[in-house]
Amino acid sequence: MGSTAEPELPKQYKACVYDQPGKVSTKVDLLDMPEPGPGEVLINLYVTPIPDALSSADAAPMLCAGVTTYAALRKSGAKSGQWVVISGAGGGLGHIAIQLAVRGMGFRVIGIDAGPKEKIVLESGAEHFVDVLAHDDESIEAEVKKLTSDGLGAHAVIVCTASNKAYAQALGFLRFGGTLVCVGMPEGTQVGIQTAYPATLVGKGWNITAVAVGNRKDATDTLDFAARGLVKTHFRLEKMDHLAEVFQEMSEGKLMGRVVLDLQ
Hints:
Elements: E1 12-18, E2 26-32, H1 56-75, E3 83-87, H2 94-104, E4 108-113, H3 118-123, E5 128-131, H4 137-147, E6 154-159, H5 164-170, E7 174-182, H6 198-204, E8 207-210, H7 216-227, E9 235-239, H8 243-251, E10 258-262
Parallel strand pairs: 3-4, 3-6, 4-5, 6-7, 7-8, 9-10
Antiparallel strand pairs: 1-2
């Protein structure tokens, strides 16, 4: 038997680092690639094949936001024809989640986000858009339930935004037996979901679950949806040198869709 050639590692690699801790500021450094030491080995990890029909830039969001939201939609337990609310619907995860839900899984979607993101939400396939800035907690719950066919609420809610308020509102969108899927992770001091009262959860049969990322099958399924043209990421390419500006857009809630970093 012939020996297997050892993989060749590049001598250096690019890294994007915080150059001013505590501020939205980054720079690109060229670092030396560490070499395995005594007793250390390189692990041959599983990689997901990218279909020929997809460019690297098109595939990248699918292997992050796509896989995660697809896993969340599957874990919601919703069935074709049922109502799913996506909170943070105009963001990098949300607009992909809408397309997967509508075009890949046959769900009916209500998208929630700030007013300027209405266009991307509806173009992604949502039947209805709700402007979170135009409502208080009571009126937004009433609006969402009114938009469902029978007025009883959604079968599932996927929270893609990192907002404690979005989580507090989400349970009120559910019908009896509905499921809230947590995806977005709020920063800062951790607090519980303010409306998740045990007596209410028991009385209304609500379920709360969470997803960090999908599995291998989720990855191949998501790429297949994209290769068939069912899902198209709204993204722009940026060099790593511009990462600080991208973070600033994100913090101000102005970022539409997704940003793909060009590592060349």
